[in-house]
Amino acid sequence: MARMLQSSTCEEQRSVVRFLWAKGHKPSEIHRDMRGVYGDDCMDRSNVFRKVSARWVPKNLTDDHKGQRMMASLDHLMRYTAQGHDFLEGIVTGDESWAYHYTPETKQASAVRRWLHSNQTDFYEQGILKLVTRWEKCVEKVGDYVEK
């Protein structure tokens, strides 16, 4: 059994989360183990999931990173000078991109789709022709029309 710690810092707990995640532990296991050691001072379960899911990005840029950004900026500036405003149309920023995700069709939706495709065209034609008479009745009665 692990010993209960009397005090801990947020950074210490984040380091533990990162370490256990790197070892392949699941977030729920990490939180359970941390709860056993830190007790009531343990970070919330949602924070453990957030720390595991978030990217571990260094906050400070190295000189190499700064150089890469400088070269990319110069490249963009030269292309803008050569191509003009048309160059800007080809740039997609994070808040302007459209990402479509796949949503699988439900059983109900596929059953409805099969039923619609199984009907003959005269079924739909009859329904459309009935709309004309219903529409005329509705206009004659100034919208006070309910089919019985």
Low-confidence residue ranges: none
Name of the CATH architecture of one domain: Orthogonal Bundle
| Secondary-structure element pattern, one letter each | HHHHHHH
Give Rg in angstroms. 31 Å
CATH topology of one domain: Arc Repressor Mutant, subunit A
Average per-residue pLDDT, rounded, comes to 78
Structure, described:
The chain is an all-alpha fold and about 150 residues long. Among the domains are: about 10-55, Arc Repressor Mutant, subunit A, CATH 1.10.10; about 110-140, no CATH class. It contains seven helices and no strands. The chain has helices at about 10-20, 25-40, 45-55, 65-85, 85-90, 105-120, 120-140. Helix 1 (about 10-20) packs across helix 2 and helix 2 crosses helix 3 (about 45-55). It is flat, with a radius of gyration of 31 Å. About 5% of the residues are buried.
Summarize the structure.
It comes from Diploptera punctata (Pacific beetle cockroach). This protein has 148 residues and is mainly α. The chain has helices at residues 10-22, 27-38, 45-53, 63-83, 85-89, 107-118, 121-140.
